[in-house]
Amino acid sequence: MRLHIEVTGVVQGVGFRPTVWRLARELSLAGFVRNSTAGVEIEVEGERAGEFVDALRAAPPPLARISGLDSREIPEQGTADFVILPSREAGASTDCSPDIATCPDCLRELVDPTNRRFGYPFINCTNCGPRYSITLRVPYDRPQTTMAPFTFCAACEREYRDPADRRFHAQPNACAACGPTVSFHRGIAVADGRDARGHDALRLATELLGSGGVLALKGLGGYQLACNALDAAAVGALRERKRRSNKAFALMAADVETVRRFAAVTAEEEALLVSPERPIVLLARDATAALPAAVAPAAADLGFMLPNTALHQLLFRGTPPLAVLVMTSGNVADEPIVKDAPTARRVLAPFADGFLDHDREIFMRVDDSVVRRLAGRTLSIRRARGFVPAAIALPGSGPAVLGCGAEVKNTFALTTPGAAVVSQHIGDLENLETLAFFQETLENLKAVYRVSPVAIAHDLHPGYFSTRWALEQTGVEHWGVQHHWAHVASVLAETGLAGPVIGVALDGSGYGTDGTVWGGEFLVANALSCERAASFRQVPLPGGEGAIRNPWRMALSFLAGSGGALPESRAVQALLRRVGETEAATVLAVRENRTLSPLTSSAGRLFEAAAALAGLCDRNTFEGEAAMRLEAAAGGHLGAPYAFATATDALPRLDFSPSFSGLLDDLEHGKTAGFVAARFHATVAAAVVDQVGRLRAVTGIRDVALSGGVFQNKLLLTAVTQGIEARGLHVHINTRVPCNDGGISLGQAYLLRERLRT
Ligand code: ZN
Ligand code: ZN
Ligand code: FE
Q: How far apart are CA 99 and CA 529, in angstroms?
């Protein structure tokens, strides 16, 4: 007798297949077991096949939850052995798991001098270790990973073959005798036989860090640059060498107790820090903690993570032990993270005093992920290591489509029949290296999930690389999706909400259907249609893109009256002194030229203008710096809102001119930047809530979706959410993908799929 059995429920990643294997052997059955899209698929053949089903029902593995078990008889095949097969069907999230941080069992072995893997940086087991970053193609099986060149030693092979072992079918299983090795060297020559290896390499690396050097380290998904975060000279040198503007460095600490010395950590944040995804968690900085200013010059939050691999764990175990390391991506400017030693030698040499390499190839580069807790939810800021390529379920079944994303913080999204697979953070599509990264990752994920998109959704912006790329693809349908509709749709895709919703999309800029630059938008939208219902008032973006790097130009643009007249104000005088009268006059003249200065309803520019007037930031050294400084200045408080108005032309337009008058008045009366920052946040929140209330009155819609990068502002998101909920409406936000442009691809793919589905 041969039975075909399908088991559904929580049956993957819980030791189900080894249990089935053992049971089949006990009953002298032939056949196979493998993971499938639905769960686990089994075939058993032999005289006692009937007993098998009852026995499995009676004693499944402890963590398994069987929700369905169907069996039917099929023709015998005369096979003799029972085997565990790799998973077969496309679409299963198990086809390629995200990378998983070192588990507690492996950590215990790592620090146990009696264990054969004591101090071995590549220790892993079935419950942890590299996955996505080393997988060349599916099925996920050692020969299809970058572990292929390493041949098992007898001990490792025994573990791998033994269903009773924690390392049964752990594809990257390895030890110091047979697996990857670390090597350390100074200078730029590629590793050779004279380099220190193994324990010596680790000792030299930790000594380098301890003595204030910068280490280029081959991490899980790419190179990282590390230095002792408590050594001001080391951090200063790294910032100097990276010319990293004022953007905060990410930090890695040995344990949660150490993190608490520098930042407040709630129970939920602690759970995130120690989670298998092991992301960077943004935490409220303890202002009293001694941390070199160069770590995070502009930020009220610190981004902390715990070691995600054994190699990182070992960096904290030198003598004397280091407590906190700066751990920043090993890349040049806006290029992708470096993943191989020759490139690292070439491009990271100016930053690093030494290199800690290893000989396990990184196939898919994947940066560290960034999350934050807010209002009882975990929000994604950058989605990469640990989260990608886990699928995001979509309603029903639909065709395979591609959302190719936006320009900055690009990701793309591919759909399988029932889900979306969103790529890791690719970066800003503005150099050849990043474009190559986009294409290589796309080809890889298409292969991994065996999907071939029948249509591509792209942004309406004709200048985006992603748009131009999409239009070059032949043999597929193309569809342009308005940027802010895609933002709102990303919330629909994540939440399963059908809509219509009142969508509030606040961001820096996105191409509008009228060819102007949108960014403070109120939409009435569902999966099939979108109507712009209101926006922020439009102002000229003086000199176009250049205004984005220069908040002071936006301040002048918001304030200028007819003929470029500026209000009498000490704050304005101070700003003119800082930037120069001549420069300012030029900007005011350019402002009147609609070709050089397109109109924008951007919410991002509004915050930047306020920051410049408050004297907090005239020039952005990184995207969003001025707004971040304004939020930091508010110190988590809201003040009394300033006045605002609603003008109406074709649409209701929120007009913040009265708010700027109030802000200047406060500054005139000696109020601090923090005071006006708190009032300004309250103002924008009140105006948004007010407009949502009006749209609710007109449409009767009670569901509100908030998205767009401006909602990364905690103070604003909290105030808007509370204000809307206080009116009895429901607020929906992004949690699994970022609300910034990293979430655009999911919205695009969702909308296109819905369009083709109906
Ligand atoms: Zn493990
Ligand atoms: Zn071994
Ligand atoms: Fe956007």
A: 37
